TrEMBL record:
Biased composition (Polar residues): 330-339
Protein name as annotated: tRNA methyltransferase 10 homolog A
E.C. number: 2.1.1.221
CDD domains, per the entry: Trm10euk_A
Organism this protein belongs to: Odobenus rosmarus divergens (Pacific walrus)
PROSITE patterns tied to this protein: SAM_MT_TRM10
Segments of this protein annotated with the region Disordered: 1-87, 279-339
Ranges of biased composition (kind: Basic residues): 61-73
SAM-dependent MTase TRM10-type domain location: 88-279
GO CC field: cytosol; nucleoplasm
Amino acid sequence: MTSEMLPAFIESSNVERKQSLNEDQEKSQKPRLGERFEPISKRQMKKLIKQKQWEEQRELRKQKRKEKRKRKQLERQCQLESNSDGNDRKRIRRDVVHSTLRLIIDCSFDSLMILKDIKKLHKQIQRCYAENRRALHPVQFYLTSHGGQLKQNMDENDKGWVNWKDIHIKPEHYSEFIKKEDLIYLTSDSPNVLKELDESKAYVIGGLVDHNHHKGLTYKQASNHGIDHAQLPLGNFVKMNSRKVLAINHVFEIILEYLETRDWQEAFFTILPQRKGAVPTDKACEGSSHDKKSARVEDGLDSDSSEEENSRNELESPHEEEKQDKENSNESTVNSTPH
């Protein structure tokens, strides 16, 4: 083969190779004969229904956030128009009504966290501080047992914390300067459910980012010290697809929102992130009844199965649901604060 024919031969071989590859891809993409789509199971059907509910509620949550922002903008505009002082910031802050409620982040779990979790705790505290400064009803914010890794991380990455205003940062434990009868520890393991907030009390949030490694720790600590404890009424208003685990700043912001609106459901749905897939409990009940109807329809379509098998399925399904509920309850270790 001459050197002049060689490039043409190489080009033709490349073209043939590409054509063969395209034919193979087309064959692989075509459905094979005899293949069938598997029918959707009951569990998959429930997941699809929950996903649909989550999508519907996502728009509702967006709308509520927009309404909240508009409401705050209107309030600020009214405040600006009703005052003649030259400093806008001072005019806005002047009309803020400070709450007497004390909200404490207990940072006594420093030794139980790695540096990565300490940094997450620091960011959540920053968010709490910023939200409290912007709130129309800011709380008396306390950061107690401040020291160790947390203080070192704040000194290195956020030196401005020493100039923070409207916050009490103390190295002492909260029990050293607040009366025991005034304290209420917020923990999801508590059997007590809050109905409303008592602004004469001091509510404690456990400053622990542990990814659920230390279950029940804050509840045990509160019980051992003889401190009253309670959980936020999350289960009374919200049904979530994911575990009922809230970040420290979410608990903090929910309390701020409740002080402004005096409505737990609005506070939860304004603050809870969309990834939680939260829906109102009444919507969740409608969804569960729809699940039962779809399950009955699915059982009715399976006419080839014997009556004995149908009766066995009816007996087994409640046990499966009970088992699923137990698994969910074990996973739902936090609904008011991380432990």
